[in-house]
């Protein structure tokens, strides 16, 4: 029998630093909720808004897979590996922090804010050589289908990370239904609603709600509004 955990948008941790407005699905920084530490190896799901001309100064990470998905606007990325890049809506960025990296992320636009998801996944290998990956996706390829945007395999669709995880994104017409069969036994699936309304199984979800499902082989998804968008994150449940 499947198990579920529902995280309504309004129950997330919230930090407003003025230039940064961030909602935390799981414990992060000053938001510490022992019931909301992680979903399997999914450790951080931050929904960030960065004001024009502002950003995150250079800071370190290690032994974490870090994924950034811009939802609006763009971010300028620089890191200690020598990478300098702009990520924008339609892109996905993945970093393996491994033995240690430093990086910064800035909204260099002076006239508009940036919205992006910052996601941390525990890796299945420690102290790997740090690496950076970024691709531009065809957003049209997710109309009424689940577009794979991340996997464990470098020769597969999307970016890759050091973990048996698969991410998919979809944008659906009202009443369109799709199923998602899990790719690996023992994995769970965490759905995050980017826009609009959905039903997953028998559970109704609205914008920025999150739903974790495990002990299941497949989930059924129905869009309840036009142009409804979601992100699915299939991850191992065992740390």
TrEMBL record:
Q: Which residues form the Quercetin 2,3-dioxygenase C-terminal cupin domain?
A: 149-235
InterPro entries attached here? Pirin, Pirin_N_dom, Quercetinase_C, RmlC-like_jellyroll, RmlC_Cupin_sf
State the superkingdom. Bacteria
Domain Pirin N-terminal positions: 13-121
Q: Which Pfam families match?
A: Pirin (PF02678), Pirin_C_2 (PF17954)
Q: Which family does it belong to?
A: Belongs to the pirin family.
What is the protein's name according to its record? Pirin family protein
The organism's taxonomy opens as: Bacteria, Pseudomonadati, Bacteroidota, Flavobacteriia, Flavobacteriales
